[in-house]
Write a structure and sequence with these properties.
single chain, about 575 residues, alpha/beta, Rossmann fold, TIM Barrel, eight-stranded parallel beta barrel, seven-stranded mixed sheet, about 35% helix, elongated, flavoprotein, 2,4-dienoyl-CoA reductase, NADH_flavin_oxidoreductase, oxidoreductase activity, Aldolase_TIM
Length: about 575
Protein backbone atom coordinates (compact mmCIF):
# COMPACT_ATOMS: atom_id res chain seq x y z
CA UNK A 1 0.00 0.00 0.00
CA UNK A 2 1.39 3.41 -0.99
CA UNK A 3 0.91 6.27 1.46
CA UNK A 4 1.33 10.02 1.13
CA UNK A 5 1.76 12.79 3.68
CA UNK A 6 -0.02 16.02 2.61
CA UNK A 7 1.56 18.96 4.44
CA UNK A 8 -0.61 22.07 4.66
CA UNK A 9 -0.92 25.35 6.46
CA UNK A 10 -3.28 26.84 3.88
CA UNK A 11 -4.91 25.62 0.70
CA UNK A 12 -6.94 26.72 -2.28
CA UNK A 13 -9.53 24.67 -4.16
CA UNK A 14 -7.27 23.81 -7.07
CA UNK A 15 -3.97 22.83 -5.49
CA UNK A 16 -5.65 20.55 -2.94
CA UNK A 17 -8.89 19.40 -4.57
CA UNK A 18 -7.27 18.26 -7.84
CA UNK A 19 -4.49 15.98 -6.56
CA UNK A 20 -6.23 14.64 -3.43
CA UNK A 21 -8.95 12.57 -5.18
CA UNK A 22 -6.43 11.22 -7.69
CA UNK A 23 -4.33 9.74 -4.89
CA UNK A 24 -7.45 8.51 -3.12
CA UNK A 25 -8.87 6.85 -6.24
CA UNK A 26 -5.52 5.12 -6.78
CA UNK A 27 -5.97 3.49 -3.37
CA UNK A 28 -3.29 5.52 -1.62
CA UNK A 29 -3.53 6.18 2.11
CA UNK A 30 -3.55 9.96 2.68
CA UNK A 31 -2.56 11.68 5.92
CA UNK A 32 -3.08 15.45 6.18
CA UNK A 33 -0.69 17.16 8.60
CA UNK A 34 -0.20 20.76 9.71
CA UNK A 35 2.06 22.50 12.22
CA UNK A 36 0.63 21.89 15.71
CA UNK A 37 -2.38 20.09 14.16
CA UNK A 38 -3.97 23.47 13.40
CA UNK A 39 -6.75 23.24 10.79
CA UNK A 40 -5.45 24.76 7.53
CA UNK A 41 -6.67 28.07 6.17
CA UNK A 42 -8.92 27.45 3.15
CA UNK A 43 -8.99 30.33 0.67
CA UNK A 44 -12.12 29.38 -1.27
CA UNK A 45 -12.03 32.63 -3.18
CA UNK A 46 -8.48 32.27 -4.47
CA UNK A 47 -8.07 33.40 -8.09
CA UNK A 48 -7.05 31.28 -11.05
CA UNK A 49 -8.56 29.10 -13.71
CA UNK A 50 -8.80 25.60 -12.28
CA UNK A 51 -9.39 22.63 -14.52
CA UNK A 52 -12.55 21.89 -12.57
CA UNK A 53 -14.91 24.68 -11.80
CA UNK A 54 -14.40 26.42 -8.48
CA UNK A 55 -17.74 25.04 -7.28
CA UNK A 56 -16.65 21.47 -8.00
CA UNK A 57 -13.41 21.94 -6.12
CA UNK A 58 -15.18 23.52 -3.17
CA UNK A 59 -17.66 20.64 -3.15
CA UNK A 60 -14.81 18.13 -3.06
CA UNK A 61 -13.15 19.92 -0.15
CA UNK A 62 -16.44 19.57 1.73
CA UNK A 63 -16.18 15.77 1.38
CA UNK A 64 -12.83 15.77 3.20
CA UNK A 65 -13.81 18.40 5.76
CA UNK A 66 -13.39 15.95 8.64
CA UNK A 67 -9.76 15.27 7.72
CA UNK A 68 -9.12 18.99 7.27
CA UNK A 69 -10.71 19.82 10.61
CA UNK A 70 -8.64 17.20 12.45
CA UNK A 71 -5.19 17.05 10.82
CA UNK A 72 -2.23 15.21 12.29
CA UNK A 73 0.47 17.26 13.99
CA UNK A 74 3.37 17.68 11.58
CA UNK A 75 5.90 17.50 14.39
CA UNK A 76 4.56 14.04 15.39
CA UNK A 77 4.80 12.55 11.89
CA UNK A 78 7.65 10.20 11.02
CA UNK A 79 8.34 11.01 7.38
CA UNK A 80 10.17 7.69 6.92
CA UNK A 81 6.80 5.90 7.16
CA UNK A 82 5.53 7.65 4.01
CA UNK A 83 6.25 6.74 0.40
CA UNK A 84 5.70 10.37 -0.58
CA UNK A 85 5.65 13.78 1.08
CA UNK A 86 3.46 16.19 -0.90
CA UNK A 87 3.25 19.96 -0.35
CA UNK A 88 0.33 21.25 -2.43
CA UNK A 89 1.07 24.90 -1.73
CA UNK A 90 -1.56 27.52 -1.01
CA UNK A 91 -1.95 31.27 -0.78
CA UNK A 92 -0.62 31.13 2.76
CA UNK A 93 0.31 33.88 5.17
CA UNK A 94 3.65 35.28 6.33
CA UNK A 95 4.05 32.38 8.74
CA UNK A 96 3.53 29.78 6.00
CA UNK A 97 5.55 26.56 5.87
CA UNK A 98 8.49 28.36 4.28
CA UNK A 99 9.23 29.67 7.78
CA UNK A 100 8.38 26.47 9.67
CA UNK A 101 11.49 24.83 11.14
CA UNK A 102 9.92 21.37 11.37
CA UNK A 103 8.87 21.45 7.73
CA UNK A 104 12.27 22.75 6.65
CA UNK A 105 14.10 19.99 8.51
CA UNK A 106 11.73 17.36 7.13
CA UNK A 107 12.19 18.61 3.57
CA UNK A 108 15.97 18.59 3.97
CA UNK A 109 15.96 15.01 5.29
CA UNK A 110 13.73 13.80 2.45
CA UNK A 111 15.86 15.34 -0.28
CA UNK A 112 19.19 14.27 1.24
CA UNK A 113 17.91 10.69 1.66
CA UNK A 114 16.55 10.60 -1.90
CA UNK A 115 12.98 9.88 -0.78
CA UNK A 116 10.15 10.96 -3.12
CA UNK A 117 9.07 14.53 -2.38
CA UNK A 118 6.67 16.77 -4.33
CA UNK A 119 6.05 20.52 -4.20
CA UNK A 120 3.37 22.46 -6.02
CA UNK A 121 3.76 26.18 -6.61
CA UNK A 122 0.70 28.17 -5.60
CA UNK A 123 1.34 31.45 -7.42
CA UNK A 124 -0.11 32.28 -10.82
CA UNK A 125 1.75 34.32 -13.39
CA UNK A 126 5.23 32.97 -12.65
CA UNK A 127 5.19 30.72 -15.71
CA UNK A 128 2.56 30.24 -18.44
CA UNK A 129 -0.63 28.83 -16.94
CA UNK A 130 -0.39 25.29 -18.32
CA UNK A 131 0.73 22.05 -16.63
CA UNK A 132 4.49 21.96 -16.13
CA UNK A 133 6.11 19.20 -14.06
CA UNK A 134 9.84 19.03 -13.42
CA UNK A 135 11.59 15.94 -12.01
CA UNK A 136 15.05 16.01 -10.49
CA UNK A 137 15.81 12.49 -9.23
CA UNK A 138 13.14 12.00 -6.51
CA UNK A 139 12.08 15.64 -6.25
CA UNK A 140 8.93 16.45 -8.24
CA UNK A 141 7.84 20.06 -8.81
CA UNK A 142 4.61 21.41 -10.26
CA UNK A 143 5.46 24.93 -11.41
CA UNK A 144 1.99 26.45 -11.03
CA UNK A 145 -1.52 25.56 -9.79
CA UNK A 146 -2.47 24.30 -13.27
CA UNK A 147 0.11 21.53 -12.74
CA UNK A 148 -1.77 19.99 -9.79
CA UNK A 149 -3.44 17.14 -11.67
CA UNK A 150 -0.46 16.42 -13.93
CA UNK A 151 1.87 16.29 -10.94
CA UNK A 152 -0.36 13.79 -9.12
CA UNK A 153 -0.68 11.57 -12.23
CA UNK A 154 3.10 11.55 -12.69
CA UNK A 155 3.69 10.62 -9.06
CA UNK A 156 1.11 7.82 -9.12
CA UNK A 157 2.64 6.36 -12.29
CA UNK A 158 6.26 6.56 -11.11
CA UNK A 159 5.74 5.35 -7.55
CA UNK A 160 3.45 2.51 -8.62
CA UNK A 161 6.39 1.05 -10.54
CA UNK A 162 8.55 1.27 -7.43
CA UNK A 163 6.00 -0.15 -4.97
CA UNK A 164 5.04 -3.76 -5.75
CA UNK A 165 1.57 -4.62 -4.42
CA UNK A 166 1.21 -6.87 -1.39
CA UNK A 167 -1.12 -9.75 -2.16
CA UNK A 168 -3.39 -10.16 0.83
CA UNK A 169 -4.94 -13.20 -0.81
CA UNK A 170 -1.71 -15.19 -0.92
CA UNK A 171 -1.67 -18.39 1.20
CA UNK A 172 0.37 -18.54 4.41
CA UNK A 173 2.26 -21.77 5.22
CA UNK A 174 2.02 -22.97 8.83
CA UNK A 175 4.24 -25.27 10.85
CA UNK A 176 1.33 -27.66 11.37
CA UNK A 177 -1.52 -28.33 8.99
CA UNK A 178 -2.52 -26.86 5.65
CA UNK A 179 -1.57 -23.30 4.65
CA UNK A 180 -4.08 -20.56 5.40
CA UNK A 181 -5.88 -19.73 2.10
CA UNK A 182 -5.25 -15.99 2.56
CA UNK A 183 -3.84 -13.45 5.00
CA UNK A 184 -7.29 -12.25 6.14
CA UNK A 185 -8.69 -13.68 9.38
CA UNK A 186 -12.03 -13.19 11.03
CA UNK A 187 -11.01 -12.39 14.61
CA UNK A 188 -12.90 -13.72 17.62
CA UNK A 189 -15.93 -11.75 18.74
CA UNK A 190 -18.32 -12.39 21.63
CA UNK A 191 -21.52 -13.69 20.06
CA UNK A 192 -23.72 -14.94 22.94
CA UNK A 193 -25.45 -17.45 20.68
CA UNK A 194 -25.10 -20.65 22.72
CA UNK A 195 -28.78 -20.73 23.66
CA UNK A 196 -30.23 -22.74 26.53
CA UNK A 197 -27.93 -25.73 25.97
CA UNK A 198 -24.72 -23.72 25.39
CA UNK A 199 -24.16 -25.52 22.10
CA UNK A 200 -23.79 -24.46 18.45
CA UNK A 201 -27.16 -24.18 16.71
CA UNK A 202 -28.75 -23.09 13.44
CA UNK A 203 -28.13 -19.40 14.17
CA UNK A 204 -24.44 -20.10 14.74
CA UNK A 205 -24.20 -22.20 11.57
CA UNK A 206 -25.79 -19.43 9.48
CA UNK A 207 -23.48 -16.76 10.89
CA UNK A 208 -20.29 -18.74 10.26
CA UNK A 209 -21.37 -19.93 6.83
CA UNK A 210 -21.92 -16.27 5.90
CA UNK A 211 -18.39 -15.36 6.98
CA UNK A 212 -16.81 -18.32 5.23
CA UNK A 213 -18.55 -17.55 1.96
CA UNK A 214 -17.62 -13.88 2.42
CA UNK A 215 -14.01 -14.64 1.59
CA UNK A 216 -11.94 -14.81 4.78
CA UNK A 217 -9.00 -17.22 4.87
CA UNK A 218 -9.16 -18.04 8.59
CA UNK A 219 -12.12 -17.96 10.96
CA UNK A 220 -11.40 -17.81 14.68
CA UNK A 221 -14.56 -18.51 16.64
CA UNK A 222 -15.90 -16.55 19.55
CA UNK A 223 -14.50 -17.87 22.81
CA UNK A 224 -15.66 -21.37 23.75
CA UNK A 225 -15.58 -22.07 27.48
CA UNK A 226 -13.56 -24.97 28.89
CA UNK A 227 -15.46 -25.06 32.23
CA UNK A 228 -19.28 -24.84 32.47
CA UNK A 229 -18.93 -23.19 35.90
CA UNK A 230 -16.99 -20.22 34.51
CA UNK A 231 -18.54 -18.31 31.59
CA UNK A 232 -17.86 -14.84 30.21
CA UNK A 233 -21.59 -14.46 29.53
CA UNK A 234 -24.64 -16.62 30.26
CA UNK A 235 -25.15 -17.64 26.59
CA UNK A 236 -21.57 -18.75 25.93
CA UNK A 237 -20.85 -22.07 24.23
CA UNK A 238 -19.18 -24.84 26.22
CA UNK A 239 -17.12 -27.78 24.97
CA UNK A 240 -16.09 -30.07 27.80
CA UNK A 241 -16.02 -33.86 28.11
CA UNK A 242 -19.81 -34.01 28.58
CA UNK A 243 -20.88 -31.89 25.58
CA UNK A 244 -22.32 -33.73 22.54
CA UNK A 245 -19.93 -33.45 19.60
CA UNK A 246 -22.37 -33.45 16.66
CA UNK A 247 -23.35 -29.74 16.96
CA UNK A 248 -19.66 -28.84 16.90
CA UNK A 249 -19.13 -30.98 13.79
CA UNK A 250 -21.93 -29.05 12.09
CA UNK A 251 -20.38 -25.77 13.22
CA UNK A 252 -16.98 -26.69 11.77
CA UNK A 253 -18.58 -27.77 8.48
CA UNK A 254 -20.52 -24.50 8.17
CA UNK A 255 -17.42 -22.42 8.89
CA UNK A 256 -15.39 -24.33 6.27
CA UNK A 257 -18.12 -24.23 3.60
CA UNK A 258 -16.56 -21.31 1.73
CA UNK A 259 -12.99 -22.60 1.82
CA UNK A 260 -11.82 -20.98 5.06
CA UNK A 261 -9.96 -22.69 7.86
CA UNK A 262 -11.69 -22.57 11.24
CA UNK A 263 -9.96 -22.45 14.62
CA UNK A 264 -11.84 -22.63 17.90
CA UNK A 265 -10.88 -20.00 20.45
CA UNK A 266 -10.81 -21.67 23.88
CA UNK A 267 -10.94 -19.70 27.10
CA UNK A 268 -11.49 -19.45 30.85
CA UNK A 269 -12.50 -16.04 32.25
CA UNK A 270 -10.97 -16.47 35.71
CA UNK A 271 -11.94 -13.47 37.84
CA UNK A 272 -13.62 -11.56 34.96
CA UNK A 273 -17.09 -12.92 35.72
CA UNK A 274 -19.81 -10.48 36.71
CA UNK A 275 -21.35 -10.58 40.16
CA UNK A 276 -24.63 -12.48 39.98
CA UNK A 277 -23.35 -15.09 37.56
CA UNK A 278 -23.45 -18.55 39.16
CA UNK A 279 -20.41 -20.80 39.23
CA UNK A 280 -16.87 -20.13 40.41
CA UNK A 281 -14.70 -17.00 40.39
CA UNK A 282 -11.08 -18.09 40.62
CA UNK A 283 -7.76 -16.44 39.82
CA UNK A 284 -4.02 -16.91 40.37
CA UNK A 285 -4.34 -14.63 43.42
CA UNK A 286 -7.22 -13.04 45.32
CA UNK A 287 -6.81 -9.67 43.60
CA UNK A 288 -10.10 -7.77 43.13
CA UNK A 289 -11.03 -6.02 39.91
CA UNK A 290 -10.07 -2.34 39.83
CA UNK A 291 -12.65 -0.55 37.70
CA UNK A 292 -13.46 2.45 39.86
CA UNK A 293 -17.20 2.79 40.34
CA UNK A 294 -17.74 -0.47 38.42
CA UNK A 295 -15.52 -2.59 40.70
CA UNK A 296 -18.57 -3.72 42.70
CA UNK A 297 -19.86 -5.52 39.62
CA UNK A 298 -17.25 -8.20 40.30
CA UNK A 299 -16.61 -10.35 43.36
CA UNK A 300 -13.16 -10.79 44.88
CA UNK A 301 -11.88 -14.02 43.30
CA UNK A 302 -10.62 -17.00 45.25
CA UNK A 303 -6.94 -17.91 44.86
CA UNK A 304 -6.57 -21.18 42.96
CA UNK A 305 -5.04 -24.25 44.54
CA UNK A 306 -2.38 -26.26 42.71
CA UNK A 307 -4.99 -28.94 42.04
CA UNK A 308 -7.32 -26.38 40.47
CA UNK A 309 -4.52 -25.11 38.23
CA UNK A 310 -3.89 -28.65 37.01
CA UNK A 311 -7.63 -29.13 36.48
CA UNK A 312 -7.91 -25.99 34.34
CA UNK A 313 -4.93 -27.01 32.20
CA UNK A 314 -6.48 -30.41 31.55
CA UNK A 315 -9.80 -28.77 30.67
CA UNK A 316 -8.04 -26.75 27.96
CA UNK A 317 -6.51 -29.97 26.62
CA UNK A 318 -9.89 -31.74 26.63
CA UNK A 319 -11.57 -28.91 24.73
CA UNK A 320 -8.76 -28.79 22.16
CA UNK A 321 -8.75 -32.54 21.49
CA UNK A 322 -12.52 -32.59 21.13
CA UNK A 323 -12.34 -29.62 18.73
CA UNK A 324 -9.91 -31.61 16.58
CA UNK A 325 -12.26 -34.59 16.67
CA UNK A 326 -15.16 -32.34 15.56
CA UNK A 327 -13.29 -31.23 12.43
CA UNK A 328 -11.83 -27.88 13.44
CA UNK A 329 -8.49 -27.03 11.84
CA UNK A 330 -6.97 -25.64 15.02
CA UNK A 331 -7.49 -23.86 18.32
CA UNK A 332 -6.51 -20.45 19.62
CA UNK A 333 -5.72 -20.27 23.33
CA UNK A 334 -7.06 -17.00 24.75
CA UNK A 335 -4.19 -15.56 26.79
CA UNK A 336 -5.20 -11.89 26.45
CA UNK A 337 -7.77 -9.32 27.62
CA UNK A 338 -7.44 -10.15 31.31
CA UNK A 339 -8.90 -13.67 31.13
CA UNK A 340 -7.45 -16.44 33.30
CA UNK A 341 -4.29 -17.29 31.33
CA UNK A 342 -3.61 -13.56 30.96
CA UNK A 343 -4.13 -13.15 34.72
CA UNK A 344 -1.33 -15.65 35.31
CA UNK A 345 0.98 -13.69 33.00
CA UNK A 346 0.47 -10.30 34.66
CA UNK A 347 2.46 -9.33 37.77
CA UNK A 348 -0.53 -7.24 38.86
CA UNK A 349 -2.87 -10.23 39.15
CA UNK A 350 -0.40 -13.07 39.81
CA UNK A 351 1.14 -12.57 43.26
CA UNK A 352 1.96 -16.24 43.79
CA UNK A 353 5.29 -17.33 45.23
CA UNK A 354 5.15 -20.95 44.07
CA UNK A 355 6.15 -22.40 40.68
CA UNK A 356 3.09 -20.77 39.04
CA UNK A 357 4.14 -17.20 39.91
CA UNK A 358 7.12 -14.98 40.62
CA UNK A 359 9.23 -14.09 37.60
CA UNK A 360 8.04 -14.28 33.99
CA UNK A 361 9.19 -17.88 33.70
CA UNK A 362 6.87 -18.84 36.55
CA UNK A 363 3.98 -16.58 35.50
CA UNK A 364 4.06 -18.03 31.97
CA UNK A 365 4.07 -21.65 33.15
CA UNK A 366 0.29 -22.10 32.84
CA UNK A 367 0.34 -20.91 29.23
CA UNK A 368 3.37 -23.03 28.38
CA UNK A 369 1.83 -26.13 29.97
CA UNK A 370 -1.47 -25.59 28.15
CA UNK A 371 0.33 -25.24 24.80
CA UNK A 372 2.69 -28.17 25.35
CA UNK A 373 -0.01 -30.58 26.52
CA UNK A 374 -2.37 -29.62 23.69
CA UNK A 375 0.41 -30.00 21.12
CA UNK A 376 1.16 -33.49 22.48
CA UNK A 377 -2.51 -34.52 22.45
CA UNK A 378 -3.73 -33.32 19.03
CA UNK A 379 -2.87 -34.61 15.54
CA UNK A 380 0.29 -33.30 13.86
CA UNK A 381 -1.76 -31.44 11.23
CA UNK A 382 -3.82 -29.55 13.84
CA UNK A 383 -2.83 -25.89 14.35
CA UNK A 384 -2.30 -24.31 17.76
CA UNK A 385 -2.45 -20.52 18.09
CA UNK A 386 -2.26 -18.08 20.99
CA UNK A 387 -3.93 -14.71 21.50
CA UNK A 388 -1.50 -12.68 23.60
CA UNK A 389 -1.56 -9.20 25.10
CA UNK A 390 1.13 -6.90 23.79
CA UNK A 391 0.54 -4.98 27.02
CA UNK A 392 -2.00 -4.65 29.83
CA UNK A 393 -1.86 -0.84 29.52
CA UNK A 394 -1.57 -0.65 33.31
CA UNK A 395 1.45 0.64 35.19
CA UNK A 396 3.55 -2.26 36.46
CA UNK A 397 1.64 -4.80 34.38
CA UNK A 398 2.51 -7.14 31.54
CA UNK A 399 4.31 -5.09 28.88
CA UNK A 400 5.67 -5.45 25.36
CA UNK A 401 9.06 -6.71 26.59
CA UNK A 402 7.26 -9.46 28.52
CA UNK A 403 5.20 -10.28 25.44
CA UNK A 404 8.30 -10.58 23.27
CA UNK A 405 9.92 -12.92 25.80
CA UNK A 406 6.79 -15.11 25.99
CA UNK A 407 6.59 -15.30 22.19
CA UNK A 408 10.16 -16.60 22.13
CA UNK A 409 9.20 -19.27 24.68
CA UNK A 410 6.18 -20.28 22.59
CA UNK A 411 8.40 -20.67 19.54
CA UNK A 412 9.95 -23.78 21.07
CA UNK A 413 6.53 -25.37 21.72
CA UNK A 414 5.16 -25.58 18.19
CA UNK A 415 2.81 -22.58 18.18
CA UNK A 416 1.64 -21.81 14.63
CA UNK A 417 0.32 -18.26 14.97
CA UNK A 418 0.30 -15.55 17.66
CA UNK A 419 -2.35 -12.84 17.57
CA UNK A 420 -1.16 -9.60 19.17
CA UNK A 421 -3.82 -7.76 21.16
CA UNK A 422 -3.99 -5.79 24.40
CA UNK A 423 -5.93 -4.53 27.40
CA UNK A 424 -8.41 -6.06 29.85
CA UNK A 425 -11.74 -5.25 31.49
CA UNK A 426 -9.85 -2.86 33.77
CA UNK A 427 -8.09 -1.09 30.91
CA UNK A 428 -9.81 -1.56 27.52
CA UNK A 429 -7.12 -0.99 24.92
CA UNK A 430 -9.30 1.18 22.72
CA UNK A 431 -9.94 3.91 25.28
CA UNK A 432 -8.40 7.14 24.09
CA UNK A 433 -8.47 6.42 20.35
CA UNK A 434 -9.29 9.62 18.49
CA UNK A 435 -10.31 10.51 14.98
CA UNK A 436 -7.35 12.82 14.47
CA UNK A 437 -4.79 10.03 14.67
CA UNK A 438 -3.11 8.84 11.50
CA UNK A 439 -5.22 6.30 9.62
CA UNK A 440 -2.85 3.42 10.23
CA UNK A 441 -2.65 4.10 13.98
CA UNK A 442 -6.43 4.44 14.22
CA UNK A 443 -7.21 1.30 12.22
CA UNK A 444 -4.45 -1.08 13.33
CA UNK A 445 -4.33 -0.45 17.05
CA UNK A 446 -1.58 -2.90 18.03
CA UNK A 447 0.71 -2.68 14.99
CA UNK A 448 3.42 -0.73 16.78
CA UNK A 449 3.69 -3.39 19.48
CA UNK A 450 3.49 -6.23 16.97
CA UNK A 451 6.40 -4.80 14.99
CA UNK A 452 8.55 -4.89 18.14
CA UNK A 453 7.49 -8.46 18.92
CA UNK A 454 8.00 -9.49 15.30
CA UNK A 455 11.74 -8.85 15.64
CA UNK A 456 12.06 -11.95 17.84
CA UNK A 457 8.99 -14.00 16.84
CA UNK A 458 9.83 -17.37 15.26
CA UNK A 459 6.23 -17.91 14.14
CA UNK A 460 3.78 -15.80 12.05
CA UNK A 461 2.02 -12.90 13.79
CA UNK A 462 -1.53 -11.62 13.42
CA UNK A 463 -2.71 -8.08 14.25
CA UNK A 464 -6.36 -7.23 14.90
CA UNK A 465 -8.02 -3.95 15.75
CA UNK A 466 -10.26 -1.59 13.82
CA UNK A 467 -9.16 -2.45 10.27
CA UNK A 468 -11.87 -1.52 7.78
CA UNK A 469 -10.04 -0.81 4.50
CA UNK A 470 -7.99 -2.94 2.14
CA UNK A 471 -5.10 -0.52 1.92
CA UNK A 472 -4.79 -0.46 5.71
CA UNK A 473 -4.64 -4.26 5.65
CA UNK A 474 -1.94 -4.08 3.00
CA UNK A 475 0.02 -1.60 5.11
CA UNK A 476 -0.05 -4.05 8.02
CA UNK A 477 1.35 -6.80 5.80
CA UNK A 478 3.96 -4.45 4.37
CA UNK A 479 5.11 -3.82 7.94
CA UNK A 480 6.08 -7.49 8.16
CA UNK A 481 2.97 -8.85 9.89
CA UNK A 482 1.66 -12.10 8.39
CA UNK A 483 -2.11 -12.07 9.04
CA UNK A 484 -4.64 -9.23 9.30
CA UNK A 485 -7.45 -9.86 11.77
CA UNK A 486 -10.83 -8.20 11.20
CA UNK A 487 -13.64 -8.15 13.73
CA UNK A 488 -16.08 -5.24 13.90
CA UNK A 489 -16.04 -4.61 10.14
CA UNK A 490 -17.23 -8.19 9.50
CA UNK A 491 -20.21 -7.63 11.80
CA UNK A 492 -21.58 -5.02 9.39
CA UNK A 493 -20.10 -6.23 6.09
CA UNK A 494 -19.52 -10.00 6.31
CA UNK A 495 -18.42 -10.23 2.66
CA UNK A 496 -15.78 -7.49 2.97
CA UNK A 497 -12.88 -9.76 1.81
CA UNK A 498 -14.76 -10.67 -1.38
CA UNK A 499 -15.32 -6.97 -2.04
CA UNK A 500 -11.58 -6.40 -1.58
CA UNK A 501 -10.86 -8.93 -4.33
CA UNK A 502 -12.66 -6.64 -6.77
CA UNK A 503 -11.76 -3.15 -5.53
CA UNK A 504 -11.09 -1.01 -2.51
CA UNK A 505 -14.03 -1.12 -0.10
CA UNK A 506 -14.60 0.21 3.39
CA UNK A 507 -17.00 -1.22 5.94
CA UNK A 508 -19.66 1.18 7.26
CA UNK A 509 -18.88 2.82 10.58
CA UNK A 510 -21.18 2.39 13.57
CA UNK A 511 -22.13 5.50 15.57
CA UNK A 512 -19.50 6.29 18.18
CA UNK A 513 -20.85 5.98 21.76
CA UNK A 514 -20.73 9.31 23.59
CA UNK A 515 -20.98 8.24 27.22
CA UNK A 516 -18.74 10.04 29.70
CA UNK A 517 -18.05 6.76 31.49
CA UNK A 518 -15.26 4.96 29.60
CA UNK A 519 -16.32 1.52 30.83
CA UNK A 520 -19.85 2.04 29.52
CA UNK A 521 -18.42 3.38 26.26
CA UNK A 522 -16.37 0.22 25.84
CA UNK A 523 -19.37 -1.98 26.63
CA UNK A 524 -21.54 -0.03 24.18
CA UNK A 525 -19.13 -0.73 21.33
CA UNK A 526 -19.23 -4.45 22.11
CA UNK A 527 -23.02 -4.66 22.18
CA UNK A 528 -23.35 -2.71 18.92
CA UNK A 529 -21.24 -5.43 17.31
CA UNK A 530 -23.19 -8.19 19.04
CA UNK A 531 -26.50 -6.74 17.84
CA UNK A 532 -25.37 -7.03 14.22
CA UNK A 533 -23.97 -10.54 14.70
CA UNK A 534 -27.40 -11.61 15.91
CA UNK A 535 -29.04 -10.05 12.85
CA UNK A 536 -26.75 -11.98 10.50
CA UNK A 537 -27.40 -15.15 12.51
CA UNK A 538 -31.14 -14.57 11.99
CA UNK A 539 -30.69 -14.15 8.24
CA UNK A 540 -31.19 -10.38 8.35
CA UNK A 541 -29.08 -7.53 7.02
CA UNK A 542 -26.81 -5.75 9.52
CA UNK A 543 -27.81 -2.30 10.74
CA UNK A 544 -24.56 -0.32 11.00
CA UNK A 545 -26.36 2.77 12.32
CA UNK A 546 -27.74 1.07 15.42
CA UNK A 547 -27.49 3.51 18.31
CA UNK A 548 -25.42 2.59 21.33
CA UNK A 549 -28.36 3.25 23.69
CA UNK A 550 -30.71 0.95 21.79
CA UNK A 551 -28.07 -1.78 21.53
CA UNK A 552 -27.43 -1.57 25.28
CA UNK A 553 -31.13 -1.85 26.12
CA UNK A 554 -31.61 -4.86 23.84
CA UNK A 555 -28.53 -6.53 25.26
CA UNK A 556 -29.73 -6.06 28.84
CA UNK A 557 -33.04 -7.78 28.04
CA UNK A 558 -31.22 -10.72 26.44
CA UNK A 559 -28.69 -10.87 29.27
CA UNK A 560 -31.33 -11.20 31.98
CA UNK A 561 -33.19 -13.91 30.07
CA UNK A 562 -29.99 -15.82 29.37
CA UNK A 563 -28.88 -15.52 32.99
CA UNK A 564 -32.09 -17.15 34.26
CA UNK A 565 -31.68 -19.97 31.76
CA UNK A 566 -28.02 -20.48 32.66
CA UNK A 567 -28.80 -20.74 36.39
CA UNK A 568 -31.34 -23.49 35.72
CA UNK A 569 -29.03 -25.29 33.27
CA UNK A 570 -26.02 -25.22 35.61
CA UNK A 571 -28.04 -26.44 38.59
CA UNK A 572 -29.24 -29.41 36.53
CA UNK A 573 -25.75 -30.07 35.14
CA UNK A 574 -24.05 -30.03 38.54
CA UNK A 575 -26.59 -32.41 40.03
Amino acid sequence: MTNVLFILSSADPQTLAEPHPLFSDAGWDITIATPNATPPTLDLGFAGKPKRTRDQNRAYLATISEALAHPAALEDCNEEEFNLVFYPGGPGRAEDLAFDKVFGALLTRRIEAGRPTALLAAKHGVVPLRPQVLVDRNVYTGRNPASAGALAHRLITDLSRKTPPVKIFEPLPLQHGAPLPSRIAKAAMEEDLGGQEHLPNERVFRLYQTWSQGGVGLIITGNVMVDPRALTNPAAMILDRHAPLEPFRQWAAAARSGGAQVWMQISHPGRQIARGMPGIKIAPSAVPMNMGAHSKRFEIPREMTRAEIEDVIERFVTTATRAAEAGFDGVQIHAAHGYLVSQFLSPLTNLRTDEWGGDLQGRSKVLREVVARIRAAVPADFAVGVKLNSADFQRGGFDVADAAAVVQMLGTLGVDLVEVSGGSYESPAMQGQTRDQRTLDREAYFLRFAKEINEVAPMPLMVTGGITRRHTAERVLEAGIDVVGIGTALSVMPDLPNRWRIAEAMAPQMPEPRFKDKAINSLAKLVQVKYNLHRIADGKRPQPRISAVRALLIDQVHEQRNLRQYRRWLETRMH
